[in-house]
């Protein structure tokens, strides 16, 4: 068994953990923004990162449940991960460009006094989301490269079956099978 087959599960689990942490942090940021400013609207880049993290989590949970089915072939998985990586890249670039615009208003929320601590906390969550978003994009790129290497087993091979040795029985030893 090659090293590629051994890292297949930990690499997918790593991406799943990063997407889960990004999703939770984006929910925290949306709640913090709503409490600071009293708005019911969401910040678009934060909502986009929340969406891409949720999509990636759901896709990977379905992959863990059905990874040996043809619906999760290497080609289809590569296409889905490419879409999610492009979506994530756009959301993280938008968040990086607009990071200073989110927490600069004077807050008037339910329990927030508007001190520097609150704005610093808001900026800290934004920085954490940026870091996790870029980490998720990098992990997606590594996983897509990994899927490219796994394509030597055939693009229509399910990812769960790629690299698994197939037992070939000799017909002369067992003629009744």
Query: How many distinct domains?
Result: 1
What overall geometry do the principal axes of the alpha carbons give?
Answer: elongated
Q: Termini distance?
A: 27 Å
Percent of residues in β-strands:
under 5%
Proportion of residues in helical segments:
55-70%
- Mean pLDDT rating: 79
Outline the low-pLDDT stretches.
Answer: 108-117
Strand elements, count: 0
| Structural class category | mainly alpha
Q: What string gives the helices and strands in order?
A: HHHHH
User: Main sheet?
Assistant: none
What is the oligomeric state here? single chain
Rg over C-alpha atoms, rounded to the nearest angstrom? 22 Å
What is the number of helices?
5
Concise structural overview:
Keywords: Membrane, Transmembrane, Transmembrane helix. The protein is mainly α and 177 residues long.
Question: What features would you describe in this structure?
Answer:
Keywords: Membrane, Transmembrane, Transmembrane helix. This protein has 177 residues and is mainly alpha-helical. The protein has one domain. Helix content is 66%, strand content 0%. The longest helix is centred in the C-terminal third of the chain and has 35 residues.
């Amino acid at each position: 068994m090659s090293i590629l087959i051994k890292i297949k599960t930990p690499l997918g689990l790593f991406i799943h953990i990063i997407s889960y942490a990004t999703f939770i942090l984006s929910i925290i940021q949306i709640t913090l923004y709503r409490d600071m400013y009293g708005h019911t609207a969401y910040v678009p880049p934060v909502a986009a990162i929340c969406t891409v993290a949720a999509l990636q989590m759901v896709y990977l949970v379905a992959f863990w449940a059905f990874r040996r089915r043809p619906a999760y072939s290497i080609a289809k998985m590569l296409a889905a991960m490419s879409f999610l990586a492009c979506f994530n890249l756009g959301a993280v670039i938008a968040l990086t460009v607009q990071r200073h615009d989110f927490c600069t208003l004077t807050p008037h929320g339910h329990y927030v006094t508007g001190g520097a601590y609150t704005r610093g906390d808001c900026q800290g969550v934004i920085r954490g989301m940026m870091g996790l978003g870029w980490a998720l994009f990098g992990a997606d790129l590594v996983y897509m490269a990994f899927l490219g290497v796994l394509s030597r087993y055939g693009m229509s091979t399910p990812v769960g079956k790629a690299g698994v040795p197939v037992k070939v029985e000799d017909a002369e030893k067992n003629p009744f099978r």
